[in-house]
Amino acid sequence: MANGHAAQGCHLRQPELTNAYLIGDGIASLASAVYLIHDARVPPSQIHVLESGPSGPLGSTGTADSGYFISVEQLLNFSCVCLYDLLSIVPSLNDAAKTVKQEIEEFNAIPGNKTYSNARLIATDQDGPQIVVAKELGLRKKDTRDLLSIYRASEKKLSNLKVTDCFEEAFFKTNFWCMWATMQVESLFSFQPCHSAAEFRRYLHRFVLGLPTIDTLERLDLTPYNQYESIILPIETYLKAQGVNFKYDTGAVRLAFAQSSDIKVEGIYFGKDGQELIQVEGSDIVFLTLGSTTACASIGSNDSPTGPVLSPLDTLRASDTGWRNWSSLFFSSLLNTPHVTQLGNPLTFYSRITESCLLCFTVTLESPEFFKLFEELTSNAPGRGGLTTLKDSSWLLTIVVPPQPYFLNQPEGVQVFWGYALFPAKIGDRIRKPMFDCTGQEIFTEILGHLNFPDDSSWTNSITIPCLMPYATSPLLARASHEDRPLVIPKGSSNLALVGQFVEIPEDRVFPLEYSVRSAQTAVFKMMGMQKQPNGIYRGGQKLKTLIMALKALLS
């Protein structure tokens, strides 16, 4: 039987008597619904996804005429064990006889889709852009000792430290740090010196295997199209075909707790006035996605900037309710349960926007000239290089040139690339103002300047869509307390599970896809009282041969 025996500490729920209410936009809710159907055997009609927006999470959209838009994506690899397990269940949109996982595997089996970057870093020189020999990491002996020290340190020792507390200033000027901070292997690192030393340690343990190829980005898995159309859309399509109930535009959600010593949800208030009520009864369960890395995203245009960063107070008023829902949960639980410390502290993650913002952009081209010049410069065909960082850019720009076409509706002759910048508040090198004050066209002009490409009529019909994401790297912020991240099943909870990027999964590192799917597996298997466990965490650093190879790379 898929649901097996009751897991220790949880009672076995009867799927036919269980209604599941999944609150929140994003892959955590979608993955929870898939596992409730596939593993727990809950009837799809008894699964309800409540999303605050009119049409689900921030995705990839657009046309050739208006310009395409891609929210920040992650390059995948073999360590995505939970994500690939999920995609082995979901059928492909293009061929129902195949799963999404099979489709990705077949796409990456094509020889031309193997990644090997010849230009991971590009420096700006008086004579034009220069490919950096990125294999020379630039680490001093002191930097190497500090890396080994943080690798061996306990997480408790690092719990409230920032990365800057563990390294000298020179470390942050090395090729190693530039590649590490901008790397996207299975998750978007986007590390900044002010981020959490404990999270840095987790990433170091998890991705130690990737250190010998940090400059070439080998063994990455590409998706046939953008990740919204290759991953998210197939999951949504599958769930709707199964009969899962999607309810959009719910507005903020407030949970009503029973007067007891346990954490027990007895009602869900939602709607624009907060007066619509769902009674939570019997074996019913509630999954809440905490926070949001895409909340308050501000999208500009080719002719207009994204605008300035919002304040934390604006965040709690925004139509994207991920942070408001968590804050409401925290404060309402103060009144009714002694277990409030088990529900986390959202303020830790949404109150430091200057440390968590990122600006991404998508460029739509009708001329092949940019791709031609970029391939000549980098010696990488589209999709082969993974990503390229312009290391001397004050914005710290990174460019991703994917295989084409990258959208299902992308016409022949149209090309799309995207990228992001870690320091959008800084003044540009060509365009002398902050990036979030720049139009899309000005951002494209800045890129052309760093690459020394001609700024002429070749780009007349180019369209650049910028998007400022205030909370893109908020999961990496240093915590004031270990309890700032709650467990997936909070202590004392009888029917509430918490999912997404802001829950605590010991020894795993945060960020969108893999971590969110693992939280969904954990929530479903435990809350349904199943014996099944989530897929094991990939632990590259526990293999002696792998560790020796990685250390040789650091010490060379």
Percent of residues in helices comes to: 25-40%
Strand content: 5-15%
Output the number of helix runs.
15
Poorly predicted regions are 1-9
What is the overall shape? globular
Mean pLDDT score, rounded? 89
State the end-to-end CA separation. 52 Å
What Rg do the Cα atoms give? Answer: 23 Å
Secondary structure class reads: alpha/beta
Strand order across the largest sheet: 6-5-14-15-16-13-17-12
Q: State the total count of DSSP E strands.
A: 18
Q: Please summarize the sheet with the most strands.
A: 8 strands, mixed
Notes on the protein architecture:
By secondary structure, the chain is of the alpha/beta class. Helix content is 28%, strand content 14%. The chain has 15 helices and 18 strands. It has helices spanning 27-38, 81-87, 100-109, 141-152, 155-158, 175-182, 197-206, 227-242, 312-317, 322-336, 347-350, 369-378, 440-451, 512-527, 544-555, and strands at 20-23, 47-50, 61-63, 67-69, 121-125, 128-131, 245-247, 254-257, 265-270, 276-279, 285-289, 298-299, 358-365, 388-390, 397-400, 415-421, 463-469, 496-499. The strands form 4 sheets. Strands 6-5-14-15-16-13-17-12 form an 8-stranded mixed sheet, sandwiched between helices. A 5-stranded parallel sheet has the order 7-2-1-11-18, sandwiched between helices. A hairpin with a 2-residue loop joins strand 5 and strand 6 (128-131). Helix 1 packs across helix 14. The chain is globular. The model is unreliable at 1-9 (pLDDT under 50).
